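User: I'll paste a sequence; please echo it back and then give the predicted structure.

Assistant: Echoing your sequence first, then the prediction.
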Amino acid sequence: MIVRILIGFAAATFIILLLVWLATGGAREVAQIARGITNPFSFIFTGQLSSFRLPWQPENAVRGPIVNSDGASAEAEAGEQQTPEEELSTAQKDYDAIMRDLSDAQAFGEPSPHRGKVTIAQGAATERTASAEYLELEAAWDNTAPVQVTGWSLQSALTGVRAHIPRGAQTFALGSVNTQGDIFLDPGSFSIVSTGVSPIGTSFRENACTGYLAGLQTFTPPLERSCPAPSDALPLTPENIRTYGEACYDFVQTIPSCTFPANTPPEISPACRIFLSNNLSYNGCVQNHKHESGFTRDSWRIYLNAGGELWRNSHDIIRLLDAEGRTVDMVSY
C-alpha cells in the first residue's frame, strides 16, 4: 500500500514538473542553451561560455552581436542606415554643394591680398544710361591704412567688359586745371563709381563745399547740400557793418546753405557784392575752410568715363580687381 502511494506521488510530481518545463520554453530553451555552448570543456569546468570556435562553426556565431562603443548593437544601427534612395539624395546634395562652391570660386577668380579691405555693392548698376549707372565701393573700418584703388579695375564676369579706376583731384578747384593724384580710400570711406563722364571733368574727393557744385551741374546720385552757413562768412562785427553795411549783413542771413545769390537787393553796397562773389561760391568756400578740421569728407566721386553702359541691366557678376587682376570682391544680381 505504501509502495503504491509513493509511486503515485512520484508520478504526479513528474507530471507537474513536465508541465512547468513545457510552459517555460521546454525543448526550445534547452536547444538555445546548447547552441551557445561552443566550448563544452570550458562550460563543464568553469560554468561559462568561451569564444572557442570549432572548425564547423562560423566566426560570427562565436562573437555574438557586435556592440559599438556607446553600447548600441550593429544590428540596431543597421536599422538607422539610409535607404538607397536616401543615400542617392544625400550624394546628389553633396555634389550640388561642391559644384556651387566650384562655380563661386570660378566666378570670384584668384583672391587678392586686399580681399576684405574694400567691398563692392550693386548701387545703380541696372540703370540704362551711362550717366545714371554706378557702383559703390567701401573701405573696411578696421583697415590700418588707406587703400590705393587707382589702377584697380571693375570687370563683368559675364561679358568680360573691364574698366580701370582713374586718378582724381584731392581738392577740386572750379575753373582750373586740377592736379591729378592716386585715389586712396581711408578706413571707413565710401565711393560712388559712375560709368559715365564727370560733370566737372574729373574724379574728386567730396568736401565741406562740394554742395555748391550741385547748383551748377547734375550729379547722380545728388551731392549732399551741406555747406558752411553763409552767415559764418560775415559775422556781426562793427568792422563788417562799416565795410559792407547793415543791408548786406541782413541779406546774408537769408541765403540758403550751398547757394550763390543770383538776385541781390538793389540797396546793398558794391563792397557787399564783391564780398558775396568772393565768399559765397564753391571756390570762396574752399578758400575760407580748406584748413579747417573735417573739411575733407570720407567719400569720393569716381568716373570711369565710358561712352555707354558697362554693366548688364538684368543679371551680372561684377568683380573688383586689384592692379594684378586678382579679385578683391564681387557682387552679383
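Confidence is low (pLDDT under 50) at residues 37-79. The longest helix spans residues 84-108.
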